[in-house]
Amino acid sequence: MKKFSKSLILALAAAALATGCKTAHEGALLPANTQKFDQEGSVNFVLLDSGAQRSVTSPGIQRTTLPDGRLRVLANVRNRENRRIQVQINCVFKDDQGFPTGDQTAWQTLFLDENVTEGVEFVSINDKAKNFTVRVRQAR
């Protein structure tokens, strides 16, 4: 038994020496996993929680530039469930590089009957908006 414990201690010590101490990295580091959760930066319709992901989809989104340069977005939102659901929806307007313009609509509550599709309209407040993201979450 004594030989076993000495062997175990020696093996653990050897493993500790082999791995060494990890030194702190100094200097600038690149961000990790930059594409992993970047749906809001790459698509126009996002579902912000698992309940919305299970219950809601968007069969189509239409964008129109109004004569005064403002952006009008009409999003079709579909209930995939066989029951009536309540969600909240808003729109974040972005410039041509994908940065928010400071124009974000208030969250509005949307009631969707069983398997129905509703159109929701959003209009930007100025002509800076060139792109957008429609966001949906479960109603709280």
What does this protein structure show overall?
The protein is elongated and about 85 Å long. Helix content is 20%, strand content 41%. It has helices spanning 2-19, 39-42, 50-55; strands spanning 45-47, 56-65, 71-79, 85-94, 100-104, 108-112, 117-123, 131-138. The chain has 140 residues and is α+β, with helices and mostly antiparallel strands. Strands 1, 4, 5, 6 and 8 form a 5-stranded mixed sheet that branches. Strands 2-3-7 form a 3-stranded antiparallel sheet.
Throw out a few tags for this protein:
single chain; 3-stranded antiparallel sheet; elongated
* Major sheet details: 5 strands, mixed
Q: Please tell me how large the radius of gyration is.
A: 26 Å
CATH architecture title of the domain at 42-138: Sandwich
SSE-based structural type: alpha+beta
Mean pLDDT: 84
The CATH class label of the domain at 42-138 is Mainly Beta
Instruction: Give the ordered list of helices and strands.
Output: HHEHEEEEEEE
What layout of secondary structure does this protein have?
Elements: H1 2-19, H2 39-42, E1 45-47, H3 50-55, E2 56-65, E3 71-79, E4 85-94, E5 100-104, E6 108-112, E7 117-123, E8 131-138
Parallel strand pairs: 1-8
Antiparallel strand pairs: 2-3, 3-7, 4-5, 4-6, 4-8
